[in-house]
Amino acid sequence: MLDLQQFTTVTIALIFAGSAIAIAVFGTKMAGYAEIIADRTRFGEALIGSVLLGAGTSIAGIVTSSTTAASGAADLSVSNAMGGIAAQTMFLALADIAYRKVNLEHAGASLVNIGQATVLILLITLPIIAYAAPPFAIWGVNPLTPILVGVYIVGLHNAHRIHEKPMWLVRQTDATRDEEDDATDDGRTLWLIGSLFAVLVAVVGFAGWIVGEAGILLSERLGISQGVVGALGTAIVTSLPELVTTIAAVRRGALQLAIGGIIGGNMFDALFIASSDVFYREGSIYNAISERTLFWMALVIAMTAILLIGLLRRERQGPAGIGWESLLLIVLWVGGAGLQIALG
Hints:
By secondary structure, the protein is mainly α. The protein has helices spanning 9-41, 45-57, 59-70, 74-98, 104-107, 111-132, 144-164, 190-222, 226-238, 240-251, 255-279, 291-313, 324-343. It is 74% helix and 0% strand.
C-alpha cells in the first residue's frame, strides 16, 4: 500500500493535485455513459442521474470519508461529505449560467428531483439530531447509521414510484426539455457501456483514497483545521466529476440528468456520514464532530431548501440570465467558504 508519509509536503500536494485531475477527467466520462444507460433502460434521466451518475461520481468522496474516518479524523471525514454536498449544489448554479436559453430549473423540471431534494433535507437533519443527542453506540456504531441507509433506500423507492406514476404533473412550456429530446445514438452494447462505467468508478475510487490520505497529511503539516481541509479541500476535489459532468450534461441538453445527478449525488453523499460512522472506531462519529462541521450541515439544508423552492417555482428568467435561487446558492456558498477560511 502506498505510504505518503515518506514524501515531502510539496510532493504530497502534487499527488493531491494529480489525483484531482484524474478524478475530474475520468469522472467526466461517466456522464456520457450514464445518459446512454438512462436511454437504454428507460428508467429516466432523473432517476439514473440520481442512482448511477450520482453514486458513481461520488465514489471518490465516500472512499475519502471512510478512510479518513478509519484514521480517526472525524471532522475531516464528515466535513468532506457536507462540503461536497454544498459545493455540488452550488455547481447547479454554475450549470444554470452555462445554460443560457432559460433558467435551468424551469427547463429541467422533474418531480423525481423535487422528491429527492426533500429526502436530502431529511438525510442531513437526522445527523444533527444525533449530534445533539447523548453519545450512544453499539459496537462503535450509532443506531442512526442504519436508519440513514434505510431512509436513502426508501427515498429511491419513492423516486421510482414518482417516475412511474406521478400524482402531480409538471406544466409543460416551450422551454421545457423532455428526455426524448436528448436520445443518444451510441452503437455499443449496454453491457459494454456498463462495464466501462464500472472501470471508471474503480479508477475514481482509488484516486479518492489518495486524496483522503494526502488531505490528512496536508492538514497536519500545514496546520490547517480538518474542517477547512475537508469542506474546501477534499470535498471540492472529490466533487469535480459532478461539476464537469453536470455542465457537460447541460450542454448536451440532458437537463434532468444534470439536476438528478447533483441531487442524487448529494443524497448518496449523505451516506458518507453513515459509512464514516462504521469506519470510525472511537465511538459515535456524530458526537465527535465540531461545531464547524455542524455549520456545513446547516448550510447544506439552507441551500437545498433554496434549490427546492427554485424547482417548485420554476422561474423562467432571472437576473443576468440565471434564476434567483442560483444567485442565492452562489452567495451562500461563497459566504460560508469565506467565513470558514477566516476562522482558520
